[in-house]
Amino acid sequence: MNNLMLHHDFFVVKDRSYPEQNMVDRIFDLYDDLEKQRIMLSFKGDLSTDLITALLGLVEKKMDVFETDQRIQKRVFNVVMECLQNLFHHNSRIAVGNDNAQNEPHGVVMIAHDETGYSILTGNYMAKREVNDLKTHLDLVNGCEPQQLRDLYKTTLANGKFSRAGGGGLGLIDIARKSGQKLEYGFVPLDNENTFFSLNVNVTT
């Protein structure tokens, strides 16, 4: 999707750039902007296993309307499934003082469609101390060619090293493999303990 680019320190939507100041509000302005485009699905809130199942059912129905190529349908569905599972397992926020974190959406999912293909955008909170490791892993994944991704997946699986939330980075490798595209991402510091992480995955047609 050409309308959205995610960078390390700021977001760009069309011709609008957002600095880190007041980023919490502006992150959700980004999603509001996207919702005005051809959005197949948009969700903000807490995810559960039952909700993921319901969202995947909805995606399957939407794809029957938007896409006639069954191969593309399968690719998009598989990427969405991996993105939702990744969001479910790795979404957390550390309470700081008397903040209102419990009143804020804990996860954001949006699926958009245009003439070039599909864009799956997710956003979640994460501990700031984990950002460097995640960025290193994302850059490693993005630096791999298809065969290297397959080898990295096998190596990671064989190592048996899994994060406290499960997956050990396998989810992001699988998302890159199934989408066939580089993963676009952004990190936005929220406070001393937390960061908002956005991931955009493109599936071209």
Report on this model:
The chain is of the alpha+beta class and 205 residues long. The protein is 43% helix and 25% strand. The chain has 6 helices and 8 strands. The chain has a 5-stranded antiparallel beta sheet with strand order 4-5-6-8-7, with helices on both faces. A 3-stranded antiparallel beta sheet has the order 1-2-3, with helices on one face. A hairpin with a 2-residue loop joins strand 2 and strand 3. Helix 3 packs antiparallel against helix 6. The longest helix has 21 residues. The chain is globular, with a radius of gyration of 16 Å. The protein starts with a strand and ends with a strand. The N terminus is likely disordered.
The helix content is 40-55%
**Order of strands in the sheet with the most strands?**
4-5-6-8-7
Shape: globular
Contiguous runs where pLDDT drops below 50 for at least 5 residues = 1-21
Write the layout of secondary structure elements.
Layout: E1 4-6, E2 11-13, E3 16-18, H1 23-35, E4 39-44, H2 49-66, H3 70-90, E5 107-114, E6 117-127, H4 131-142, H5 146-159, H6 170-179, E7 184-189, E8 194-204
Antiparallel strand pairs: 1-2, 2-3, 4-5, 5-6, 6-8, 7-8
Helix pairs in contact: 2-3, 3-6, 5-6
In a nutshell, what does this entry contain?
The chain has about 200 residues and is of the alpha+beta class.
Q: Which tags fit this structure?
A:
5-stranded antiparallel beta sheet; single chain; 25% strand; 205 residues; disordered N terminus; alpha+beta; 3-stranded antiparallel beta sheet; 6 helices
